[in-house]
Amino acid sequence: MQSIVQDQERSNIPIRDNNSLLTVEDVARIFQVPVSWVYGAVRGRKKKQMPHIMIGRYIRFEEQSVRDFINANKKAYPNVKTVADRMN
User: Fold this and answer.
1) Does residue 12 belong to any structural domain of this protein?
2) Per the structure, how many domains does the chain have?
3) Over 60: is that where the pLDDT of 59 sits?
4) Residue 26, helix vs strand vs coil
5) Is the dihedral of CA 66, 72, 73, 74 positive or negative?
6) Which of 4, 30, 60, 79 is 20 to 30 Å apart from 17, CA to CA?
7) At 17, is the pLDDT very low, low, confident or very high (cuts 50, 70, 90)?
8) Model confidence at 86: pLDDT above 90
C-alpha cells in the first residue's frame, strides 16, 4: 500500500480543478452517456462534431464548449396536449 502512495506522490499529474480539461470518461459521467457515445460525437460529421482538443492521441474537452454543444443540439419536444388542453 505504501508503494502506491509513493508512486502517486511522485506523479507529475496535476490535481483536477475547475479550469481543467475534461477526459472522455469525465464527459460521459457528467452527461450520463456511454463512453462510446462521446467517441462517436467526436467522430461525428463536421457540422455535428463535439468540440474537442487533441493532445497527442488524447482527447480532451472544455466543459463549457461541451455544454454549448449539448444545448445547441437539443430537440424540442413535439407539441403535446396537456390534460387541461384536452378538456377545453
Assistant:
1) no
2) 1
3) yes
4) helix
5) positive
6) 4
7) low
8) no
Q: Which of 24, 25, 26, 62 is nearest to 42 (CA)?
A: 24
Cβ distance 60 to 53 under 8 Å? yes
Q: Is the pLDDT of residue 10 over 80?
A: no
- DSSP-based three-state secondary structure for 27: helix
Residue 37 sits in a domain whose CATH number is: 3.90.105
User: How many Å apart are CA 21 and CA 51, to the nearest integer?
Assistant: 12
CA 57 to CA 48: how far, in whole Å?
Answer: 21
pTM for this prediction: 0.63
The answer to whether residue 85 is domain-embedded is no
Q: What is the mean pLDDT of residues 34-44?
A: 92
Would you say residue 50 lies in a domain?
Answer: yes
The rounded distance, in Å, linking the Cα atoms of 35 and 25 is: 6
Residue ranges making up the domain that contains 40: 18-74
